[in-house]
Amino acid sequence: MPSAALTTAAPTTAAPTTAAPTTGTPGVGPLLREWRQRAGVSQLDLALRADSSARHISFIETGKTRPSREMVLRLAEHLDVPVRERNALLVAAGYAPEYPESSLDSPALEVLRLGLDRLLAGYDPYPALVLDGTYRVWGANRGASLLLDGVAPELLAQPLNAMRITLHPRGLAPRILNFQEWRGHLLDQMRRQLALLRSEPLRALYEEVAAYPAPPGGDERAGERSPLALPLIVGINGRRLSFLSTIATFNTPVDVTVSELALETFLPADAETARHLAELAG
């Protein structure tokens, strides 16, 4: 597991270039209709939000009218379309992508990396991770290493993936005392993402981790509910530690990479866990 510093090996991505729709892929009209229907918005409601007309929206969706670049972006904004998918809409309409996809080690993201490093260090001794849209771990603090004791070495080889580490039977799974509940929560989270993103890497990861066998042993918290939120309950060195997970993302990102970064932190859910983490910090 990396220490507080973010790792700097990231996939190389090219700057946006002009692109035309690939033969056989849906045009921008059907894609916009799908996003509108997902949002539960009528053509009239969308037209009012976008300062257009229901007739114009209908013509766009049926392919009778090619929307301008500005109209595609305006409709995508009012439908809360993720940044990566906004680029896909533009390409489907025959325009160049609007949003760059920077490498995390790009000089343009240096200030962001330093800020995330400080956040990770500031959360110690509470575990904290920086993840991308496919749950690759780009950074972690010392507190996160507490959760990795006993994880198989092959799961700790780069690139680390939080879903594999958590759900694999040679990973954290055997020590998660409410494994069935936590597994269900994570798989539901991935399904919600897949409903918004056409991400083949994320779908492949989902299919992989969903097929992992459950570790031997029962689920001691089956049916029990926390009054606050579903905790992650882990048995570590004979101690029962309970954490509440929080996830922070960036507001109004204009870069695909930044839009998919998330800071996940694990806060103590009970006094025993808080005391143990304080002891480790001391």
From TrEMBL:
It holds the Pfam family HTH_3. InterPro entries: Cro/C1-type_HTH, Lambda_DNA-bd_dom_sf, MLTR_LBD. Residues 1-28 are annotated as: Disordered. Residues 32-86 form the HTH cro/C1-type domain. PANTHER family: BLL4672 PROTEIN-RELATED, BLL5781 PROTEIN. This is Helix-turn-helix transcriptional regulator. It comes from Streptomyces litchfieldiae.
